[in-house]
Amino acid sequence: MAELHDLTALEQAAEIRSGELSPVELTEHYLARIDRLDDALGAFLTRTPELARKQAAEAEGEVVAARRQGWTLPPLYGVPVPVKDLNRVAGVRCTMGSAALADHVPDGDDHVVTALRRAGTIMLGKTNTPEFGLPCYTENALAPPARNPWDTARSAGGSSGGAAAAVAGGLAPVAHGSDGGGSIRIPSSLCGLYGIKPSRGRVSAGPLLHDVTGLSTSGPLARTVADAAVLLDAMAGNLPGAPYAAPALPPGETFADQVRRDPGRLRIAVLTQTPLPDVEVHPDCRAAVAETVSLLGQLGHETVELALPVDERILLDFTRVWSVMAANRPVPADAEDRLMPLSRYLRARGREVSGTDFAAALYAFRALAQGLADGLMPPDGGYDVILSPTVAAPPPPVGALRDDADPQAEFAAVGRFTPFSAFYNVTGQPAVNIPLHWNAAGLPIGVMLAGRYGDEATLITLSAQLEAARPWAHRKPPVW
Predict the structure, then answer these.
(1) 206 half-sphere exposure, CB direction, 13 A CA radius
(2) Is there a catalytic annotation at residue 463?
């Protein structure tokens, strides 16, 4: 017999609107699952049952009034959506995964949290993240690591690893995540989820800690394309102070609308060689791409092999910018010794980057984005989408990427594991992880699609077509 967490977020919302399901009942269901399962999964850094129950009770009253008065409620009204602990929620502890901020409680919301409140979602808590979201695993000094629901000896990835563990483990129907170098797509790949890194400027980051580099953005993690698209609709928006703004959809359209559309015949570039030197791509990841190429051909799309020139300067420029971002995280002066070794290493490097070198790296980012727009994917030709592996290997064991004794070696290992993902943070293009493949060990192996800047619509439409041809949401991990 199906349980509430077997329903998609949109199915839950539809039952709430019809009166078949209460937001209070749904919230209590997830709070009970969190109590029972989260010690094993490490999905949450801070649980907020009192806030969730208060929001659910208010939502229940609004739903009753809406049915009586004929009001139209937002599509995810009354549905739980946890927030990653890199983002501020008024009155709720925000640690950014750091022991140095263990007692930090902000007095205001980030813009994306305001948007989620406006959408009527229920916050179950703050999901686990590594310190300042810097590595691609989720391990910190505050809480147990985020573990993969498909095999709890393995990592859930990062930096949105807690969000991925929550959704893949049935502790939340969908989740807010953020992505500065692959941090939505990587854990989505490892945990068998659909995740969207939106275009630069699609989701407003403020009012504090705007990312002027343009690398990072909030986005959704979900079990289905439709759930992710509707959550992106709830998050999207540009507010004063934002340094970037993505092109708007045509008036009256939503990302949810794209799920029901035919993508037409697309020309898709296939990238399996990384632009970084000395990086091996695991056969399972190559097999996932080959399987996707075959499926795309069956659906009538054209695929063309693509090779990008190997260029170490991309890694150098990214490292400089990433280090400066790390150095600018808000750490109290007397708390540096409480930081993880990787954070201390990157902050030290960031302080050594000159202003001119930082500017030169950002110029290189823009040149790469412009070159891709002018060459590979012009509006009048080129490719509509680029397909690649999401990561270079299957989900690693917890702790396998971490090296507290040698953080420089750790950072290099993280780069080898994720040679494809940060490329689209540099260019600002939208990119998604699609969970089409599971290996012989029963572990998810994702593939990544990237589109033209501002064109999440094509990615969502194509993703929905792939999902319809080869559904994945029926796959459930052992903890389900």
Answers:
(1) 12
(2) no
* pLDDT at 375 (0 to 100): 62
Catalytic site residue from 159, 160, 199, 218: 159
DSSP annotation of 6 reads G
Using a pLDDT cut of 70, give the percent of the chain over it: 98
Mean pLDDT, all residues of the chain: 96
Residue 217 DSSP code: E
Compute the distance between CA of residue 280 and CA of residue 301 in angstroms, rounded to an integer. Answer: 28
What is the C-alpha separation between 126 and 45, in angstroms, rounded?
A: 6
Residue 244 has pLDDT above 60, yes or no: yes
The whole-angstrom separation of Cα 20 and Cα 227 is: 20
The model's pLDDT over 190-201, given as tens digits with 9 standing for 90+, comes to 999 999 999 999
Contact indicator for 386, 395 with CB cutoff of 8 Å: no
State the pLDDT confidence band at 242, using cuts at 50, 70 and 90: confident
> CA–CA separation, 152 vs 165, rounded Å?
10
Name the catalytic one among 22, 178, 183, 199: 183
Q: Is 54 a catalytic residue?
A: no
Retrieve residue 37's tokens: 């399962």
Evaluated on CA atoms 402, 407, 408, 409, the torsion sign reads negative
Catalytic-role residue among 22, 84, 160, 199: 84
Q: The whole model's pTM is what?
A: 0.97
Say which range, 67-71, 230-234, 276-280, 347-351, has the weakest mean pLDDT.
276-280
To the query of whether residue 159 is one of the catalytic residues in this protein, the response is yes
